[in-house]
Amino acid sequence: MAEQAPSRLVIASRESRLAMWQAEHVRARLSILYPLCDVTILGMTTRGDQILDRSLSKVGGKGLFVKELEVAMADGRADLAVHSLKDVPMDLPEGFALAAVLEREDPRDAFVSNDYDGLGDLPPGAVVGTSSLRRQSLIAAHYPHLVVKPLRGNLDTRLGKLDRGDYAAIILAAAGLKRLGMEERIRALLAPETSLPAAGQGAMAIEIAHTDTPRADGIDLMALLAPLNDVATSQAVTAERRVSKVFGGSCQVPLAAYATIDAGTMRLRAMVATPDGKRVASAEVHGPAVDATQLGDQVADKLRQQDALAILAEAKAAADGAA
Ligand SMILES: NCc1[nH]cc(CCC(=O)O)c1CC(=O)O
């Protein structure tokens, strides 16, 4: 039985093309589930979208993409927010919760270039664009002859900078390109063995304001949105985000965590590295997918045994030094 829906629901979203695509996807699915409910999208600009001249890890991290949307929900201007899960901090502010994690798109990193077929084809000194510390570390570790330069902005901005010739190649999440119908720009998909994905990459999440006090209209949003939750994705990202949380949980750290599930068994891989790629800790665990949180803790323990904390301290010192 479908939950009782209100006559109207408002989705808060960033205004980038990818964010709007994702909000529209959720809007369409809710309209099918609750045909009598009028679902609309409230587009808004966040601080993360405005600050484009500095690396996010230096101006406060990914939370900058979600704060304004949370304020809209707290004010009653919106009922839910759709996010790329990768941009959602590990700990949500008091009074907010994730109501659903949607089925994952391709979680891999994509190599995008107009002239080259893959990282292995780039000549020494070629400039690769990415602002992700994780991608930077991985490139430095596997392809030390390449030069990594920062690259910020939404997908169209980043592709524009590539096309202008500022970079020989750029690395982007495959999920965003696929969702926006730009899959043909992908020259190569990076195997998880080379470029282990970030926690939550490729998954969308729905956030709601959530307290013990019921809403004035008596609507149980958590129950209303539950049918959009994908159990396997939810288990995978629970494990991945646990690893991230154990190590300080932000994009200020070069950390990868990636879980796959086969017949109820999870394989969880995780990695931390210094930005120069010289020190890397990586670990892997297997176990029942329902034990996602414990698997996250186990892989974090294994990383710690390989000096992950010292590696992260070195990464942080390097980042602070560069700021
Ligand atoms: N860091 C920004 C961000 N957040 C989510 C995505 C892509 C879509 C996704 O992972 O779901 C991107 C762009 C990128 O990393 O290239």
UniProtKB/TrEMBL annotation:
Subunit structure: Monomer.
Residues found modified as S-(dipyrrolylmethanemethyl)cysteine: C251
PROSITE patterns on file: PORPHOBILINOGEN_DEAM
Record organism: Pseudoduganella plicata
GO molecular function, one term: hydroxymethylbilane synthase activity
Annotated ranges, domain Porphobilinogen deaminase N-terminal: 9-213
Something else known: The porphobilinogen subunits are added to the dipyrromethane group.
Gene that encodes the chain: hemC
Lineage: Bacteria, Pseudomonadati, Pseudomonadota, Betaproteobacteria, Burkholderiales
Protein name, per record: Porphobilinogen deaminase
Pathway stated in the Swiss-Prot or TrEMBL entry: Porphyrin-containing compound metabolism; protoporphyrin-IX biosynthesis; coproporphyrinogen-III from 5-aminolevulinate: step 2/4
